[in-house]
Amino acid sequence: MFKSKYSTVLTIFLIIIIIAIIVIGTIMAIKAYKNYEDSKEKRRVLAELVDNNNEENNNNEDEENTIGENTFIQQVQDNTTQGNQTGGSSRSKTKFYKKYPMVGYIKIEKTKVEYPILLDVSPGALETAVGVLYPTNPNLNQPGITVIIGHNYRNGKFFSNNKKLEIGDKIRITDLTGKTLIYSIYEISVLPETNTEYITRERGNNIEIALSTCTDDGQDRLVILARAE
Questions:
Q1: pTM of the model as a whole
Q2: d(CA 205, CA 110)
């Protein structure tokens, strides 16, 4: 009788193990498929930028960015007075990534970052890629500075690994004309949210970007400045 009860318990235990394996395997398969689809979509939009680098933009967008990513976004809008970037080539026909309008693409080989750069910095947009916080009507790869923000989820996504970047590391930015510039990091700072001096400082004809994300403790901003070579 004892042996019979033991066999029943063992059978139930094995069934539970099998069900757990099936559930875990299904979850992992779904996650892998989602990652594959995201990666395929990113490759598609980058290829589209490069393949259509001679398209002209006939649509002049005047929409304002939706506000998101904590009070830092509002701080930048309240404290920056520099005008929008001008000059250079006109933006190509508007392209989208997961319904959000794009302005380009960023690639950082050291941290394996590859994301569309969105015009939108709303919470929904920043759950899918990174976005331009400043200026409000950006043309990438033009004189002045472009501030690109992304989440730090401390899991490798978006700008979570920006803390691993060092002076001299390279960042590739592709704009909507298909042109790619290589930027070299020259300054890395941890700043309070209220500090926007790095945006408003004079840059002359230099072409620069700033990558901004939360520090791991969420108290400050990790700001990385890079200049086009």
A1: 0.69
A2: 28
